[in-house]
Design goal:
By secondary structure, the protein is an alpha/beta fold. It has helices at 23-31, 45-56, 72-83, 103-111, 115-122; strands at 6-7, 36-40, 62-65, 92-95, 98-101. The two termini are 26 Å apart.
């Protein structure tokens, strides 16, 4: 799934500050670049579910498809470190610059009514 908010390797040139960042700093910088950021993989069904839920709520997340990003594999390693996961931590959903978690936490917060207030507080929803 492509959206107008996708960040791909072609959009990051050698003149950006990313060249001097560690993968962890790059993830942290990207995660705080928008109210909602999803680190994803185009072939991950859980990532698709997370993105579709957010889009259905009229949230325009920044989506970073790691399998299409030049630094994707190193950012994936950084996401494992940040999340404490040894398995693939995708999708990794950040709200307000903070790691919310994966699709299970996103869906649980939606079901129990905690997601909408969290999105409003981060400035992702105006209603």
């Amino acid at each position: 799934m492509k959206s107008g908010m996708d960040i791909e390797s072609s959009s990051i040139s050698s003149t950006t500050p990313f060249m001097n960042m560690t993968p962890r700093e790059m993830v942290t910088h990207l995660a705080s670049s928008n109210a909602v950021v999803v680190f994803s993989s185009t072939d991950c069904c859980f990532s698709t579910v997370a993105k579709n839920l957010l889009f259905s709520l009229a949230v325009g997340p920044t989506v970073i498809e790691l399998d299409q990003h030049a630094s994707g594999s190193t950012m994936l390693t950084a996401l494992c470190q940040l999340s404490g996961e040894t398995r693939q931590p995708l999708p990794a959903v950040f709200v307000g610059g903070k790691l919310l978690g994966g699709v299970e936490i996103l869906l649980a917060k939606h079901i129990n009514g905690a997601l909408i207030p969290l999105l409003k507080e981060a400035g992702a929803l105006w209603l």
